[in-house]
Amino acid sequence: MKENKDIKEENLKDLNDICDECREKDESVSQNLILTGFKICKSCRVSKTIFPI
Predict the structure, then answer these.
(1) Around Cβ 47, how many Cβ atoms within 10 Å?
(2) Which site in 3, 15, 40, 42 is 20 to 30 Å from 34, CA atoms measured?
(3) pLDDT (tens digit per residue) in 20-33
(4) What is the Cα–Cα distance from 35 to 45, expressed in whole angstroms?
(5) Helix or strand or coil: residue 15?
(6) So where are the chain's domains?
């Protein structure tokens, strides 16, 4: 039972709405995490789409 609690706490730490690229807090980070699997904000997603390097 204790292991399940630890796993849930780790999952909640991932949903902190902080972008991995620019380190800014944005609501779109959790939405993009669900859609694409990457923790990036809307503006970083657009820039990565236009300039993929």
Answers:
(1) 14
(2) 3
(3) 999 999 999 989 99
(4) 12
(5) coil
(6) 2-50
pLDDT of residue 21: 93
Angstrom distance (rounded) from CA 36 to CA 15: 14
Please check the confidence at residue 5 and state whether its pLDDT lies above 70. no
* DSSP assignment letter at 40: -
**Which burial class, exposed, middle or buried, applies to 4 when counting CB atoms under 10 A from its CB (0-12, 13-18, 19+)?**
exposed
Using left for φ > 0, alpha for ψ between -120 and 50, and beta otherwise, residue 23 falls in left
CA 44, CA 31: separation in Å to the nearest integer? 13
